[in-house]
From TrEMBL:
Protein name: Lipoprotein
Protein origin, superkingdom: Bacteria
């Protein structure tokens, strides 16, 4: 019974905004995180991947690029 009550209270606080999530992120931090997630094109080229996958990346000169995974038997990233 206590477990059900604890779950209900936790859900109620979360749903009603009673739990703080911490400091909000600045837009600059969000943009930086997005560019870091994109990754470096140079680092991706030639590494193994799952065929049919696509991703975006950033070249060393700052330009955006795209990478696709080559089909079997190669299974390596090809970026352009």
């Amino acid at each position: 019974m206590r477990a059900i009550l604890a779950i209900a209270v936790a859900f109620g606080l979360t749903a009603c905004g009673g739990v703080e999530t911490g400091e909000p992120m600045a837009p600059e931090a969000t943009e930086q995180a997005a560019s870091e997630l994109a990754g470096s094109c140079e680092a991706l080229v030639g590494t193994f991947c799952r065929p049919g996958a696509f991703t975006s990346c950033t070249w060393s000169d700052g330009n955006l690029g795209e990478c696709e995974c080559q089909r079997t038997p190669f299974n390596k990233w090809l970026c352009y």
